[in-house]
């Protein structure tokens, strides 16, 4: 797939910035590798979508943003949280479902959220973040701030109805938003040319009034320049932008993906363009760092992930009484129960869980312990075999990944 080619490589930033960029990509890579290991050991439940191979796309885009800008992503968002500055301890604890996680253990892998750093979450519904990002951009405009939002989504999401609706509204209202499609060339397991009539996704919003550009998602500097210019136009000219970053994920759609839709040779060919190795080699060739310097950076990143994993493992699970905390309800103007706990002899509103009494809590604890034992037994029974594509078995009960084709 062709991407924008420049006559000469982008000029390196200063040494401090260059090293920081490399270190951040390394941190994401080592985090994702460890997360995969922890999933295989049943420390992480549910589904796990890794961004290994996409580090340049993530870091290049985030580094082009201001600290006051907002960021939204998809369910493949561990790297985005780390790039935005969320501590790896808080991210790993969330993957473990622990109380010290960035979403208090209630969100898991697909629903990280860090308001302090204006990271407004990962979203499991394909294309579901597009209208929400448009609303955030409207809020920025309405409040008269100079803030903007970057909304990342996969190639499959460009086929959703929310895509056209969001582009139209953003262009109509001249909102400060950069829509960034991370084109890793597969919507779940369907190649781009089989699910999109238009394969140059940067052109897909032109009919709605949103101009687009394309960058090399394996080149952190190219991504930085493309997103930086798009943010400038969105912010200063009030012209929403679409940026397509052509990249590749080296692992499956999720840890439950057998990867039967692509060959090992194809993955190996793309691995030759590993964004970390390519950027590292350039820094070495231009005398910015040495091989020893890189080894130290890598050791430091691995050490941080070691600490994050230990922190997550030592963090307690959320108290069962917190199951219904922070649930959005409409209030008394809309009658009905939006969360009902039926574990007690007498069902009660979820928001009344903390006042449910000792008997309800004892039954809930017993039920949770029983379910956990069944889950562990079933999980190991289904996750023991590797397959041709290198993916792991399906999660407990043979559950299917329902995130859809947004990748």
Would you kindly provide a written description of the structure presented here, covering whatever features stand out?
The strands form three sheets. The protein has a five-stranded parallel sheet with strand order 1-2-3-7-6, sandwiched between helices. It has a two-stranded antiparallel sheet with strand order 4-5. Strands 8-9 form a two-stranded antiparallel sheet. The protein has helices spanning 15-40, 55-63, 78-84, 88-95, 129-143, 161-172, 192-195, 220-236, 264-271, 275-285, 291-314, 358-382; strands spanning 70-72, 149-154, 177-183, 186-187, 190-191, 212-216, 241-246, 340-341, 348-349. The model is unreliable at 384-400 (pLDDT under 50). Helix 2 (55-63) runs parallel beside helix 8 (220-236). It contains twelve helices and nine strands. It is 41% helix and 9% strand. The protein is α/β, with parallel strands linked by helices. Strand 4 and strand 5 form a beta hairpin. The protein has two domains: 15-314, Rossmann fold, CATH 3.40.50.970; 325-389, no CATH class. The two termini are 17 Å apart.
Number of helices: 12
CATH topology (level 3) name of the largest domain: Rossmann fold
In this structure, how is the largest beta sheet organized?
5 strands, parallel
Number of DSSP strand runs: 9
Name of the CATH architecture of the largest domain: 3-Layer(aba) Sandwich
Strand content bin: 5-15%
> In total, how many domains does the architecture comprise?
2
CATH class of the largest domain: Alpha Beta
How far apart are the first and last residues' alpha carbons, in Å?
A: 17 Å
Mean pLDDT: 89
Outline type: globular
Order of helices and strands: HHEHHHEHEEEHEHEHHHEEH
Radius of gyration: 22 Å
- Strands in their spatial order, largest beta sheet: 1-2-3-7-6
Structural class: alpha/beta
CATH superfamily of the largest domain: Thiamin diphosphate (ThDP)-binding fold, Pyr/PP domains
In terms of per-residue confidence, which ranges show pLDDT below 50 for 5 or more consecutive residues? 384-400
């Amino acid at each position: 797939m062709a991407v924008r080619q420049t006559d000469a490589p982008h000029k390196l930033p200063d040494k401090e910035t260059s090293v920081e960029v490399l270190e951040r990509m390394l941190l994401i890579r080592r985090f994702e590798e460890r997360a995969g290991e922890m999933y295989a050991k049943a420390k992480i439940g549910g589904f796990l979508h890794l961004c290994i191979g996409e580090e340049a796309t993530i870091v290049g885009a985030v580094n082009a943003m201001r600290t006051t800008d907002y960021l939204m992503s998809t369910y493949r968002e561990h790297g985005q949280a780390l790039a935005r500055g969320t501590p790896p301890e808080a991210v790993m604890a969330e993957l473990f479902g622990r109380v010290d996680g960035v979403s208090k253990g209630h969100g898991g892998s697909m629903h990280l959220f860090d308001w302090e750093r204006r990271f407004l979450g990962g979203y499991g519904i394909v294309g579901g973040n597009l209208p929400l990002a448009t609303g955030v951009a409207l809020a920025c405009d309405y409040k008269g701030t100079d803030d903007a939002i970057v909304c990342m989504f996969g190639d499959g999401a460009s086929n959703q109805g929310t895509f056209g609706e969001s582009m139209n509204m953003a262009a109509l209202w001249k909102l400060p938003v950069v829509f960034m499609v991370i084109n890793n060339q597969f919507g779940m397991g369907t190649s781009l040319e089989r699910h999109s009539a238009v394969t140059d996704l940067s052109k897909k919003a032109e009919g709605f009034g949103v101009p687009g550009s394309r960058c090399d998602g394996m080149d952190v500097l190219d991504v930085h320049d493309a997103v930086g210019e798009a943010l400038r136009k969105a912010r200063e000219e009030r012209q929403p932008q679409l940026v397509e970053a052509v990249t590749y994920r080296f692992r499956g759609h999720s840890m439950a993906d057998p990867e039967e839709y692509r060959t090992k040779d194809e993955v190996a060919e793309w691995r030759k363009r590993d964004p970390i190795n390519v950027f590292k080699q350039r820094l070495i060739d231009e005398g910015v760092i040495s091989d020893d310097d890189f080894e130290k950076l890598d050791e430091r990143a691995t050490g941080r992930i070691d600490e994050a994993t230990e922190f997550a493992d030592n963090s307690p699970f959320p108290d069962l009484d917190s199951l219904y905390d922070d649930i959005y309800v409409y209030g008394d103007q809309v009658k009905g129960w939006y969360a009902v706990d039926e574990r007690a002899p007498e069902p009660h509103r979820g928001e009344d869980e903390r006042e449910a009494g000792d008997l309800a809590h004892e039954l809930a604890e017993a039920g949770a312990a029983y379910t956990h034992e069944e889950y562990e037994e079933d999980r190991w029974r289904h996750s023991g075999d590797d397959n041709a594509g290198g993916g792991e078995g399906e999660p407990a009960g043979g559950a299917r990944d329902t995130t859809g084709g947004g990748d």
